Amino acid sequence: MATTTLKGQPFDRQTMDSMLRRRMFYTPSFEIYGGVAGLYDYGPPGCALLTNIMDIWRKHFVLEEDMLEVDCPALTPEKVLKTSGHVDKFADWMCKDPKNGDIIRADHFVEEILESRLKGDKEARGVKVVDKEEDPKKKKKKVKGAIEAVKLDDAVVQEYEEILAKIDNYNGDELGALIKKYEMKNPATGVEPSPPVAFNLMFQTAIGPSGNLQGYLRPETAQGQFLNFAKLLDFNQQQMPFASASVGKSYRNEISPRAGLLRVREFLMAEIEHYVDPDGGKKHQRFEEVKDIELILLNRETQLSGKTTVEKVAIGKAVADGTVDNETLGYFLARIHLFLEKIGIDQSKIRFRQHMANEMAHYAADCWDAELQTSYGWVECVGCADRSAYDLTVHAKKTGAPLMVRERLAEPITIEEWQIDLDKKKFGPFFKKDGKTVEAAIEALPQDKREAFAQDLAADGKIIIDVEGVGNGKVEISKDLIVIERRTRTENTREFTPNVIEPSFGIGRILYSLIEHNYWTRGTDGGDEARGVLSFPPPVAPTKVLLVPLSSHESFKPLLKYMSLKLRSLGVSSRVDDSSASIGKRYSRNDELGTPLGITIDFQSVKDKTYTLRDRDSTKQVRADEETILKAIKALVEGEKKWADVEKELPAFEGQEVEAELPVKEK
Amino acid sequence: MATTTLKGQPFDRQTMDSMLRRRMFYTPSFEIYGGVAGLYDYGPPGCALLTNIMDIWRKHFVLEEDMLEVDCPALTPEKVLKTSGHVDKFADWMCKDPKNGDIIRADHFVEEILESRLKGDKEARGVKVVDKEEDPKKKKKKVKGAIEAVKLDDAVVQEYEEILAKIDNYNGDELGALIKKYEMKNPATGVEPSPPVAFNLMFQTAIGPSGNLQGYLRPETAQGQFLNFAKLLDFNQQQMPFASASVGKSYRNEISPRAGLLRVREFLMAEIEHYVDPDGGKKHQRFEEVKDIELILLNRETQLSGKTTVEKVAIGKAVADGTVDNETLGYFLARIHLFLEKIGIDQSKIRFRQHMANEMAHYAADCWDAELQTSYGWVECVGCADRSAYDLTVHAKKTGAPLMVRERLAEPITIEEWQIDLDKKKFGPFFKKDGKTVEAAIEALPQDKREAFAQDLAADGKIIIDVEGVGNGKVEISKDLIVIERRTRTENTREFTPNVIEPSFGIGRILYSLIEHNYWTRGTDGGDEARGVLSFPPPVAPTKVLLVPLSSHESFKPLLKYMSLKLRSLGVSSRVDDSSASIGKRYSRNDELGTPLGITIDFQSVKDKTYTLRDRDSTKQVRADEETILKAIKALVEGEKKWADVEKELPAFEGQEVEAELPVKEK
């Protein structure tokens, strides 16, 4: 599918990119020093867009549901990330070209070589080759060598296709074996890369003056939230369920960053950890409010069938029929959809894709990504995973901290179980220094083993249990030391480790998609170059109102200052453009910045305080007195009215648009 | 001076700290793993406070003056920080105790030992020793050994005092010499620490998979702004003056972090870089608006005289009499003062202290710190420096990027100067491979040298100039190769490197001071423990309104939900406390969080939709219908009205306060 702009025009990324750089939405960091791959600066309009997106995010999620926001450092000591699994597993496989020293991501390399060979095969068979959309999720680095039209055996084609289908599943040795087996050579040098080695994606540093405390920059904000679980539960007066949230920078030392803002080394994340009782089907109290919201859900089966488009389905139905695992997960998918819609993401370019079983972290129960369609393909922008009780469990086990919920039961419950009594007086003296170890091994016996041992004890008068580190690892205990009996016990409280549903937002990716979704170009009568427009909804637009005086005449200055102050007191951001460029030029500069409204101050304004209000998207204008204009602006910016409403209510003005459309000289 | 609370009570830091931890304003990071010194997490009320402070900051500075906000990565390549001087100079001197391995900051060590000896001397002389305020700026680590009452020679006392007066001026060798000379021993072990070595305070890391690109976490946000100067000037349509601004985390690997939020390793900074033409006295267009604002200005002379208190003076007068170097610097001092006042900093606890000449970076023209008084002493919270043209100049020189302003002159100017012509045809062949080097040396000659050489040439028919790297460094040029003449030339443009005025805010320190300045305790009739109150102004308060139902009766639930929605639609944050604790208890919990207003929902509310509105500070209550109550809340939260106004307008309610004041049982 070819990508089109908001107005259905063919999308030209290069033109848009050059506009974004020129208007300083973002720009490569440290550019005067040659830049660093994967690091970007946001300029003034980019920053304002970011601030507005985050403001809406906070209102939509944190305030709406009384989430407990925390702000934790990016600097993280190694032991935390060792427990979470990041030190051992947060890595990509990397090869080196022995000839030119190129560093190559092994999975990308195998993928590209095989795809290029398959393309060559198709060409040799006379099949027309259509370039696939570039997909940043797959992080491809274009292979430099040209495609050679070489026909492959049918069996080989099938082998290649099978490898590509499970490319995310291979470990380093397996990738190395594939490279050897299929004689894959770096097209740049013609030599085979070195065997893959694991490259951890975390930035490492030492904390404190001694250099002994190893640390990393966090790769996600989640861990800081988990570590505070007990304090947060306390803050929430022990009430479940609840959510914590965090907004902050995270870091990943990508092997080869690319695709602009989509794959960077430092990025803004917004993460929610919603803690829910694993028992009772993970219901959500407010699910009713969202159940009719329709989403495009690309589940596992659909993906395996090779289909990429599906009908929309109500989230209520999807949870009921088991497509989405539970209500809480479904609730957040719907809320994510509403958020994306609210900031101006094109509804027809959102889909939710379920992770394949092998794509998920081993502890995850289910995971859906909100993907947004861009000229780079479908981009994962929000992940929504059910992380189960994994993180809280491992941190609790490592530190001994009680990262769980103790709930008073409405009715006490009676539990029937196998209990063990030791004759402590005899037991200690008998096992001496090994006493504690043996006792711990006995305490740890699960119910089924206890039952079996009870039978052994009755039959043989002794049991033999495995105790690591004592003698040969087998310990005999006779019936005068131990009693195993089935008894009942009453419980007044219930302890459980909550499961975590985690919506995790990549803000830079959302911001880039938002820009693409709102970009289009306006032709000119004079045959000039088409002019870019960013049709952001007013609430996210970097600046809401442009103030333009008709000319640099002194009489306009007091009114400019007056209107700036008026707008500021209404909480509406505005900018003045009093440069000597024509009004049309000044408006089109601000169309590029996505400024939705413009006020023209002319000689009539000086006389009677009436103003012209211009709409960015239609370039239509209306004219009215100050109070009416300000009221209309406030209603438009707060989303209470659309331009069409304003146009109906206020008299049209056509005086300046003629001049505005004339080709004009630059200042 | 003893520190007191907002209500003049003796300030008890331990009680306040324990309340702040309990209510999760902030908490040591990674605490369940034993924590890491100098790293803190902000909990929900701390985060909300931070967000509100930053929101006001953006409105007060960025929006008010159309500053150009940029957001740059914390990861910074070494070459940038090499040029800025941080790689070589951003260090403290550090010693090691050879016995126990303690790491000691050398300047603090010398300072503490000498102060302790002076104290011992005073004691021996029978002078009463009063503990000085602890001053975190001086980063003292309390020496563990007890003070020994040993009398010193008068001459030695004078030597010690002189050393202490210039303690910030010594380099590592000098500090080492002092330690040796005065036989300073670590009280913990009785041995002399190792000679001081420089310890760079930046966190180091490697960027990219090769490990070849050395990087650091930025120690300030300023450099990212400077590198973008040319793009920002362009964005601003070449108009001067203008300012950029940045909000983000910065990092300093402190040797021994302490004093809670006041000296940490990762912290939020908000920095403004205001670019101004160095010619014309650095006037500011809006100085007139602030000139009557009165500040406490502790200038260099006053500090040298030993005085610490001075009268307030209008900033207009201070600039006029030269106390403050220029209008732009003065303008920002006043704006900083207004900002601090706006968020609720106690006006009587703000002072501006001028840096001593030896305290400033060598390039700075002037520097004033806004210091806030806390129980730790006066704390530097905002720096306001005139960084001159230093940063832009060094980066431009290193990279060749044009970090300057080219201004069209209103009237062309005529310049009379000594110009040099070389006879290129003869010059090249004569000097051969050295030609370019010699030519560059000639081009670089300043006007005074040119004049002198013109006279030499007339007198001797030749000149001898210094050219490094050519022959013996002396090059003879005869008059057939060179002409030096005084001529006039017309200039239409003027080029200059702007000077930078930099207000730099340590947000964590401001936040902590704000908490201290608004803390007090309310006694109880029943003799219970005094209850903490944080009297934040409504605009910064983490939550604006507490909603409390009289009891957990079902009939209150719809109204709670209704009022929550109502408040949210007004943009007012609220929280419900429907726990079973008494109303009084619930209110006092929220006084600790600084929630300024409370709405009680009782049976009367269910009947007629009237509500009680409670004021945190006075605990007074008024009662009115929904619309009136909401209007009052909006006016209070937006700072348009004070509680006194509301109390005058609406009927008082005294029904519940009796219960609220009763000692109550915890839930």
Automatic annotation (TrEMBL), chains A, B:
Q: Which Pfam family is an annotated match for this chain, by its short name? A: HGTP_anticodon
Enzyme Commission no:
6.1.1.14
Q: Which biological processes are named by the entry's GO terms?
A: mitochondrial glycyl-tRNA aminoacylation
Give the family per the record. Answer: Belongs to the class-II aminoacyl-tRNA synthetase family.
Q: Which organism is it from?
A: Diplocarpon coronariae
Q: What is its main location?
A: cytoplasm
Which protein are we looking at?
Answer: glycine--tRNA ligase
Task: Name the keywords, alphabetized.
Answer: Aminoacyl-tRNA synthetase, ATP-binding, Cytoplasm, Ligase, Nucleotide-binding, Protein biosynthesis, Transferase
Molecular-function GO terms, alphabetical:
ATP binding; glycine-tRNA ligase activity; transferase activity
Domain Aminoacyl-transfer RNA synthetases class-II family profile residues, every copy: 12-549
- Subcellular location, record wording: Cytoplasm
Q: Which GO terms describe its cellular component?
A: mitochondrion
Describe the function of this protein. Answer: Catalyzes the ATP-dependent ligation of glycine to the 3'-end of its cognate tRNA, via the formation of an aminoacyl-adenylate intermediate (Gly-AMP). Also produces diadenosine tetraphosphate (Ap4A), a universal pleiotropic signaling molecule needed for cell regulation pathways, by direct condensation of 2 ATPs. Thereby, may play a special role in Ap4A homeostasis.
* InterPro entries per the UniProt record, alphabetical: aa-tRNA-synt_IIb, aa-tRNA-synth_II, aa-tRNA-synth_II/BPL/LPL, Anticodon-bd, Anticodon-bd_dom_sf, Gly-tRNA_synthase/POLG2, GlyRS-like_core, tRNA-synt_gly
Which reaction does this chain catalyze? 2 ATP + H(+) = P(1),P(4)-bis(5'-adenosyl) tetraphosphate + diphosphate
Kindly give the PROSITE patterns that the UniProt entry links to this protein: AA_TRNA_LIGASE_II
